[in-house]
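Weekly sync notes, structure subgroup
Attendees: PM, AL, DS (notes)

Item 1: joint prediction request from the bench team. They want all two components modeled as one assembly rather than separately. Inputs as received:
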Amino acid sequence: MRKIARVMSLLIAAVTLFTVTSAHAQSNGLGVSPRRDFTVQSGKSVSDTLYVSNLSLNQELQVNIRLVDFSAANETGTPALHLADNAPQTPWSLKPFVKLQNSVRIGAGKSVNIPITVTVPANQGAGSYYSAVEYTAQNPETKEKVNISASTASLLFVTVPGEANEKLRMKQFGAFESDKNDGGSFKNFFLGGAPKEFAYRLQNEGSIAEQPSGSMVIKNMFGRTVKEVEDVNIKKQLVLIGQTRRIQACVKSSVLTSKAPTGQETKQTVCDDPGLLPGRYTAQVALYYGLNGNNSQEILATASFWYLPWWSIVGLGIVILLIIGLVWLIRRAVSGKHRRYRR
Amino acid sequence: MTDSTKRVKGRIRIVFRTARLFVMMSVLATGYAMTSTLIAHAEQLGSRSLRIESSVAGTSTRHTFTFSYGAAGTNVGSIVFEYCTSPLLEIACDVPAGLNASTASLAEQSGETGFFVYDQQPNKIILSRTAATSPIANPSQYVFDGVVNPTVQDSFFVRISTHENTDGTGTAVDFGAVANATTQGVIISSEVPPILKFCVGLELGDDCTAANDSVIDLGDLNTSRVSHGSSQMIAATNAEFGLAIAVYGTTMTSGNNVIPALATPTVSAPGNAQFGLNLRDNSNPNTGLEPSGVGLTNPTATYDTPNRYAFSSGDVVATSPAATDTRKLTSSYIVNISSNQAPGIYTATMTYICTATF
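Output from the run, pasted for the record:
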C-alpha cells in the first residue's frame, strides 16, 4: 500500500505534466504602423493616431499598450527594446512627452486608430527623441504550459528642430562582402568576383539620429570613373544616437521577383556583378547630413581595392612566360648571327 | 652610306618619333586633367546650409541658402545653384523628380549682395552681378521664393559654385553642396500606408486570420527522452526598412527551480537539463518546419541550424532586410531534464516581438 502511495505521489509530482486545453482563445495577430516620424517645435505639441488592427477573423484582440525605450541592437537597424519595468530611461526617451492609452479591445477583423499626443516642453533642447509603442496581445494566463504571445511595436521618432550637436564620424569605408546573416567583412583584395557592394560604418557622436545621404564613384587605376552609385543610403537608414551603424550600398543592383506556387509575389533588390576589369580601383564616397536649416555636414572617404580574378592571374602568367620565351628566342637568334658574323 | 650608319639613323628616327608621341600624349593628358578638375580645385564654400520653409514634397516654398565664400582675393561675378540627385561632380546631374526652380524669384540677399537672377532652368538658378568683385561679407544669404520641392519623398542636393565670369561659366572659384529632404505631406487616400503584420499561433495557415492558440503542449518531461513542441509565426511588412523578430521571456521555471536555457546552439541531449528553440526543420527530435512563403524573413544565425537549439531572452530570431511578403516561421522547443531536476510544475512564457528596423 505504501509502495503504491509513493508511486502515485511520484507520478503526481512528476516533473512537469503538460496538457493541452483550449483556454479562452484570443487573437494573437496584429497589424500596426511600423514607424512614425514627427517634427515638433519646443513648446508645441502634435496629435495623431496609431493604427492597430486585429488580423484574426474569429477572435477578439485585447491589446496592452505601453511606451518602451529602445537603442540599437547592433550595427544594423534592429532595435533592442528596453522591456524591463525597472529599465532606466534613456536620454533620448519620448516617455515624458507622450500621452497614450494603455489598452484597447479590437473586434475580430477590425481595426482602430489610437490617439497619441506628443508635447515638447518649451525649454527642451533641439535633438532626436525616440521610443517604441509596444502592443502586446493579451492571452489567458495558463500554468503548466509554454505560453506564447505576439507583440509588435511602432517606432516613434520625434525631431525637435534648432541648433543641435550633429556629428557623425566615419569609422570604416570599403568594399564589403556580406553573409546571409546580416554580417560580413570589409575586403581590399578580391580574387573571385568583383566586389558587389560597399559599406561604411558611421559613429553618431551627436544628439540627433541622423540619416546620411550621398553618392559614391569608383575610379580605375588611370583615374577614370568607371562606376557611379548615386544613392548610397537607398533605404534611408538611420544612425541612432551613440550607435555605430553599418550601411551597405550595391555598386550595381537589380530587382528580383519571386513567385510562390500560390501566386504570391515578392520583390527583392539584389547586388549584381558590377562588371569591372581586373586592376586596382579607388572608391570615393561623399555623405551629407544635417537638420533642415542647419549646416550641411559633409563626410568624404576614400578606399582602394584590388580585383584580380584567377583567370587574370593565369593570363598574366602566360603573357610573362611568352615574353620570357620571346626574349630568349631573340637573344638566341642574335647571338647565332653574331657567331656566324665572327666566323 | 654604310649599313651601320643607316641603322643608327633609323634608331634615332624611332627615338624622335617615340618622344614626339610621348609629348603629345602628355599634353592631351594634362589637358584632360585640367578640364576635369576645373571645379575640383576650387575652394570650399564654408558653413553651407539650405533651409526649406516647408519640406512637404511637391509644395512651392522658400529656399534659403547660407554660406561663406572660401577663396580670398578672387573676384566673384556669378553664383550657380544646381539641384541634383547627387552631390558629386563626377556624377552627371539628374534633376530631382518634380523639382521646379524655373519661376523662382530672388526675394532677399544679404552679406555679399548686388546679385540678380541672370538665368534659370527647372533645376538651375544663376545669379549674376554687373561687375565681379572680391567677396568680403561672410556669411552671405540668398533667399528664393517659389521653388517647387521635389515631388518624391527623398533627399536631394544643391551644388553651389561661384564664378569669376558674370554668366556662371568658367572655372569655379568656390564650390560646395548642401543636402536636404522632402517629407510626406497629406496622405493621399489611394496610397497604401506602411503596415507591419505579425501573428503567432500553434498552427497557422497562409495568413494570420486564424491566429488564436497560445499554449504549447510539451508532454511529460522525462530524463530518458526529449520533450518537444512547436509554434508558428507569420510576419510581413511593406515598410522599406524591413523587420526584426525578437524573442523575450524566461526559460522553464517552477518557483526557484529552473531548467537552464542553452546559451549557444547545442544538440538535444536527454538526461541533461536543457531548454532551447530554433526555427528550422529538425530530425533530432523530429520537429519543426523550414521557413515557407515568398517573403524575405529568415532565421538569424543562432536559430538557423537544424538540430541545434538555443535561447536567450531578447535575441533576434529572424530578420528581413527589406519590405517582405508573408513568410511563415516555425519555432521548435526542446526540453530535457537531468535526474536531479526538482519536481514541480514548470512554465515558460515566450513573447515574440516584431518591429520594423530603422
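Discussion: Chain A touches chain B through 102 residues (CB under 8 Å).
Action: AL to compare against the crosslinking data before next sync.
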